[in-house]
Design brief:
The protein is an alpha+beta fold. It contains five helices and 16 strands.
Protein backbone atom coordinates (compact mmCIF):
# COMPACT_ATOMS: atom_id res chain seq x y z
CA UNK A 1 0.00 0.00 0.00
CA UNK A 2 1.57 3.34 -1.00
CA UNK A 3 2.43 5.76 1.81
CA UNK A 4 1.50 8.78 -0.30
CA UNK A 5 -0.76 9.48 -3.25
CA UNK A 6 -0.03 11.79 -6.17
CA UNK A 7 -2.43 14.50 -7.35
CA UNK A 8 -3.73 13.79 -10.86
CA UNK A 9 -5.23 17.02 -12.15
CA UNK A 10 -6.91 18.26 -15.30
CA UNK A 11 -7.33 21.90 -16.39
CA UNK A 12 -10.36 23.11 -18.36
CA UNK A 13 -10.01 26.57 -19.89
CA UNK A 14 -11.91 28.67 -22.40
CA UNK A 15 -15.10 30.60 -23.06
CA UNK A 16 -17.16 27.41 -22.87
CA UNK A 17 -15.34 25.72 -19.98
CA UNK A 18 -18.22 26.13 -17.51
CA UNK A 19 -20.88 25.15 -20.04
CA UNK A 20 -18.86 22.08 -21.00
CA UNK A 21 -18.54 21.00 -17.36
CA UNK A 22 -22.25 21.64 -16.82
CA UNK A 23 -23.15 19.37 -19.75
CA UNK A 24 -20.74 16.54 -18.92
CA UNK A 25 -20.45 16.33 -15.13
CA UNK A 26 -22.98 15.36 -12.48
CA UNK A 27 -22.50 18.43 -10.27
CA UNK A 28 -23.94 21.88 -10.91
CA UNK A 29 -20.88 23.64 -12.30
CA UNK A 30 -22.90 26.70 -13.33
CA UNK A 31 -23.48 27.56 -9.66
CA UNK A 32 -19.83 27.23 -8.68
CA UNK A 33 -18.27 30.57 -7.72
CA UNK A 34 -14.67 31.57 -8.35
CA UNK A 35 -12.54 30.48 -5.40
CA UNK A 36 -14.81 27.57 -4.50
CA UNK A 37 -14.83 23.83 -5.17
CA UNK A 38 -17.49 21.13 -5.28
CA UNK A 39 -17.52 17.36 -5.57
CA UNK A 40 -18.52 16.14 -9.00
CA UNK A 41 -18.32 13.03 -11.17
CA UNK A 42 -18.34 11.89 -14.76
CA UNK A 43 -20.80 9.05 -15.29
CA UNK A 44 -21.18 6.59 -18.13
CA UNK A 45 -24.50 5.95 -19.90
CA UNK A 46 -25.37 3.28 -17.30
CA UNK A 47 -24.83 5.76 -14.47
CA UNK A 48 -21.57 4.23 -13.24
CA UNK A 49 -18.87 6.57 -11.95
CA UNK A 50 -16.07 6.86 -14.50
CA UNK A 51 -14.28 9.54 -12.50
CA UNK A 52 -14.77 11.27 -9.15
CA UNK A 53 -13.11 14.61 -8.48
CA UNK A 54 -13.01 17.99 -6.79
CA UNK A 55 -14.10 20.62 -9.33
CA UNK A 56 -12.42 23.91 -8.41
CA UNK A 57 -13.23 27.19 -10.15
CA UNK A 58 -9.98 29.11 -10.51
CA UNK A 59 -11.36 31.98 -12.62
CA UNK A 60 -14.38 32.94 -14.71
CA UNK A 61 -13.14 30.71 -17.55
CA UNK A 62 -11.04 28.01 -15.90
CA UNK A 63 -11.69 24.91 -13.80
CA UNK A 64 -9.28 22.51 -12.13
CA UNK A 65 -10.30 18.89 -11.66
CA UNK A 66 -8.49 17.09 -8.82
CA UNK A 67 -9.12 13.40 -9.37
CA UNK A 68 -9.93 11.09 -6.50
CA UNK A 69 -8.44 8.05 -8.22
CA UNK A 70 -7.53 7.29 -11.82
CA UNK A 71 -5.20 9.04 -14.23
CA UNK A 72 -5.65 12.50 -15.72
CA UNK A 73 -4.34 11.80 -19.25
CA UNK A 74 -6.82 9.00 -20.15
CA UNK A 75 -9.60 11.05 -18.58
CA UNK A 76 -8.69 14.07 -20.71
CA UNK A 77 -8.52 11.91 -23.87
CA UNK A 78 -12.01 10.52 -23.17
CA UNK A 79 -13.47 13.98 -22.52
CA UNK A 80 -12.00 15.44 -25.73
CA UNK A 81 -14.36 13.28 -27.76
CA UNK A 82 -17.23 15.45 -26.53
CA UNK A 83 -15.69 18.88 -27.13
CA UNK A 84 -16.95 19.20 -30.73
CA UNK A 85 -17.10 22.96 -31.45
CA UNK A 86 -16.99 24.10 -27.83
CA UNK A 87 -14.39 26.73 -27.00
CA UNK A 88 -12.65 24.72 -24.30
CA UNK A 89 -9.11 23.37 -23.89
CA UNK A 90 -8.48 20.25 -21.79
CA UNK A 91 -4.98 19.75 -20.40
CA UNK A 92 -3.82 16.88 -18.21
CA UNK A 93 -1.19 18.32 -15.86
CA UNK A 94 1.86 16.47 -14.51
CA UNK A 95 1.23 14.53 -11.29
CA UNK A 96 2.07 16.60 -8.19
CA UNK A 97 2.55 16.02 -4.48
CA UNK A 98 -0.43 15.92 -2.12
CA UNK A 99 -0.05 17.26 1.39
CA UNK A 100 -1.89 18.49 4.47
CA UNK A 101 -1.97 22.09 5.68
CA UNK A 102 -3.87 24.02 8.35
CA UNK A 103 -7.65 23.75 8.59
CA UNK A 104 -9.56 25.88 6.09
CA UNK A 105 -13.21 26.59 5.42
CA UNK A 106 -14.69 23.72 3.45
CA UNK A 107 -15.11 24.17 -0.32
CA UNK A 108 -12.67 27.09 -0.56
CA UNK A 109 -9.78 27.28 -3.04
CA UNK A 110 -6.57 29.30 -2.68
CA UNK A 111 -3.55 29.78 -4.91
CA UNK A 112 -0.33 29.84 -2.84
CA UNK A 113 2.69 30.47 -5.04
CA UNK A 114 2.86 27.36 -7.23
CA UNK A 115 0.47 25.34 -5.07
CA UNK A 116 -3.32 25.03 -4.99
CA UNK A 117 -4.95 24.53 -1.58
CA UNK A 118 -8.47 23.16 -1.07
CA UNK A 119 -10.33 23.75 2.18
CA UNK A 120 -11.79 20.66 3.85
CA UNK A 121 -13.17 22.11 7.07
CA UNK A 122 -11.12 19.94 9.42
CA UNK A 123 -8.00 20.34 7.29
CA UNK A 124 -6.48 21.96 4.23
CA UNK A 125 -5.27 19.90 1.28
CA UNK A 126 -2.34 21.16 -0.79
CA UNK A 127 -1.45 20.24 -4.35
CA UNK A 128 2.18 20.83 -5.22
CA UNK A 129 3.56 22.33 -1.98
CA UNK A 130 4.48 19.33 0.18
CA UNK A 131 4.00 15.58 0.41
CA UNK A 132 2.41 13.65 3.28
CA UNK A 133 -0.66 11.48 3.79
CA UNK A 134 -2.19 12.89 6.99
CA UNK A 135 -5.14 14.07 4.89
CA UNK A 136 -6.15 10.46 4.20
CA UNK A 137 -7.30 9.84 7.79
CA UNK A 138 -9.14 13.20 7.85
CA UNK A 139 -10.97 12.39 4.63
CA UNK A 140 -11.85 8.83 5.63
CA UNK A 141 -13.57 10.20 8.75
CA UNK A 142 -15.40 12.72 6.56
CA UNK A 143 -16.55 9.93 4.25
CA UNK A 144 -14.75 11.24 1.15
CA UNK A 145 -14.13 8.20 -1.10
CA UNK A 146 -10.96 7.65 -3.11
CA UNK A 147 -11.42 5.22 -5.99
CA UNK A 148 -8.83 2.49 -6.57
CA UNK A 149 -8.45 1.35 -10.18
CA UNK A 150 -10.79 -1.64 -9.72
CA UNK A 151 -13.57 0.71 -8.56
CA UNK A 152 -13.49 2.96 -11.65
CA UNK A 153 -16.42 2.39 -14.04
CA UNK A 154 -17.92 -0.03 -11.50
CA UNK A 155 -19.95 1.87 -8.88
CA UNK A 156 -23.20 3.82 -8.97
CA UNK A 157 -23.53 7.20 -7.20
CA UNK A 158 -25.50 5.90 -4.16
CA UNK A 159 -22.74 3.42 -3.32
CA UNK A 160 -20.28 6.31 -3.01
CA UNK A 161 -22.67 8.59 -1.11
CA UNK A 162 -22.49 11.19 -3.88
CA UNK A 163 -25.83 12.79 -3.05
CA UNK A 164 -24.63 13.44 0.51
CA UNK A 165 -21.53 15.05 -0.98
CA UNK A 166 -23.75 17.15 -3.29
CA UNK A 167 -21.92 15.70 -6.28
CA UNK A 168 -25.10 14.82 -8.19
CA UNK A 169 -27.61 17.46 -9.32
CA UNK A 170 -31.18 16.67 -10.33
CA UNK A 171 -32.31 20.20 -11.14
CA UNK A 172 -30.15 21.01 -14.16
CA UNK A 173 -29.99 19.95 -17.80
CA UNK A 174 -29.04 16.52 -19.09
CA UNK A 175 -25.62 14.95 -18.59
CA UNK A 176 -24.32 11.42 -19.16
CA UNK A 177 -25.92 8.91 -16.79
CA UNK A 178 -28.50 11.41 -15.49
CA UNK A 179 -31.50 9.16 -16.15
CA UNK A 180 -30.05 6.30 -14.09
CA UNK A 181 -28.90 8.65 -11.31
CA UNK A 182 -32.36 10.24 -11.12
CA UNK A 183 -34.10 6.87 -11.09
CA UNK A 184 -31.98 5.73 -8.15
CA UNK A 185 -32.62 9.04 -6.37
CA UNK A 186 -36.39 9.00 -6.72
CA UNK A 187 -37.06 5.25 -6.58
CA UNK A 188 -34.15 4.02 -4.45
CA UNK A 189 -33.44 0.31 -4.40
CA UNK A 190 -29.65 0.32 -4.53
CA UNK A 191 -28.25 -2.47 -2.33
CA UNK A 192 -24.68 -1.28 -1.65
CA UNK A 193 -23.58 1.63 0.53
CA UNK A 194 -20.39 3.11 1.88
CA UNK A 195 -19.34 2.50 5.48
CA UNK A 196 -16.55 3.65 7.73
CA UNK A 197 -14.96 0.37 8.87
CA UNK A 198 -12.27 -0.95 11.20
CA UNK A 199 -10.21 -3.86 9.82
CA UNK A 200 -8.08 -6.42 11.64
CA UNK A 201 -5.18 -5.67 9.29
CA UNK A 202 -4.24 -3.10 6.69
CA UNK A 203 -5.37 -4.00 3.17
CA UNK A 204 -4.46 -2.68 -0.30
CA UNK A 205 -7.06 -0.30 -1.74
CA UNK A 206 -9.36 -2.25 -4.01
CA UNK A 207 -9.33 -5.40 -1.86
CA UNK A 208 -12.51 -7.49 -2.19
CA UNK A 209 -13.84 -9.29 0.89
CA UNK A 210 -16.02 -12.40 0.57
CA UNK A 211 -18.30 -14.61 2.61
CA UNK A 212 -19.87 -17.96 1.73
CA UNK A 213 -22.25 -16.24 -0.71
CA UNK A 214 -19.61 -14.32 -2.67
CA UNK A 215 -18.21 -10.77 -2.79
CA UNK A 216 -19.72 -8.61 -0.03
CA UNK A 217 -17.36 -5.64 0.50
CA UNK A 218 -14.89 -3.53 -1.48
CA UNK A 219 -12.21 -1.64 0.48
CA UNK A 220 -11.64 1.80 -1.04
CA UNK A 221 -8.87 2.97 1.31
CA UNK A 222 -7.62 2.46 4.85
CA UNK A 223 -5.04 4.03 7.16
CA UNK A 224 -3.32 2.66 10.24
CA UNK A 225 -2.64 4.39 13.57
CA UNK A 226 -1.73 2.66 16.84
CA UNK A 227 -2.55 -0.74 15.29
CA UNK A 228 -6.06 0.40 14.39
CA UNK A 229 -6.87 0.12 10.67
CA UNK A 230 -9.71 2.49 9.70
CA UNK A 231 -11.08 2.76 6.21
CA UNK A 232 -13.96 3.24 3.81
CA UNK A 233 -15.63 0.26 2.19
CA UNK A 234 -18.59 -0.39 -0.06
CA UNK A 235 -20.66 -3.02 1.77
CA UNK A 236 -23.64 -5.05 0.60
CA UNK A 237 -26.74 -4.05 2.56
CA UNK A 238 -27.55 -7.71 3.19
CA UNK A 239 -24.30 -8.14 5.10
CA UNK A 240 -24.81 -4.92 7.09
CA UNK A 241 -28.28 -6.06 8.12
CA UNK A 242 -26.72 -9.16 9.72
CA UNK A 243 -24.79 -7.10 12.27
CA UNK A 244 -21.79 -4.85 12.79
CA UNK A 245 -18.98 -7.41 13.08
CA UNK A 246 -18.02 -10.03 10.50
CA UNK A 247 -15.19 -12.43 9.68
CA UNK A 248 -14.63 -12.30 5.91
CA UNK A 249 -12.11 -13.83 3.54
CA UNK A 250 -9.49 -11.90 1.62
CA UNK A 251 -7.41 -14.24 -0.54
CA UNK A 252 -6.31 -16.87 2.00
CA UNK A 253 -6.66 -14.61 5.05
CA UNK A 254 -9.58 -14.11 7.42
CA UNK A 255 -10.26 -10.41 7.98
CA UNK A 256 -12.34 -9.18 10.89
CA UNK A 257 -14.34 -6.14 9.86
CA UNK A 258 -16.39 -3.87 12.10
CA UNK A 259 -18.94 -1.64 10.42
CA UNK A 260 -19.05 1.82 11.96
CA UNK A 261 -20.85 4.72 10.31
CA UNK A 262 -23.02 3.96 7.28
CA UNK A 263 -22.98 6.80 4.79
CA UNK A 264 -26.33 7.48 3.09
CA UNK A 265 -26.75 7.85 -0.66
Amino acid sequence: MPATFQAETLLLEGDDAIAFAQAQFSGNAAELAVGRWQFSAWLDAQGRVRALFHLARLSEKSLLLVLRGGRAEPFADALRRFVFRSKVKLQALPARALGTVEAMESHTVEQRDDAIVLGGGTHGWSIGAREDDTWRAEQIHLGWPWLPDDALDALLPPALSLERLQAVAFDKGCYPGQEIAARLHFRGGHKRHMHCVVLSQALPPGSVLRDEQGDVALVLDNVSANDVHTGLAIVNDALAEQGKSHALRWNEDIIDIELRERWPA
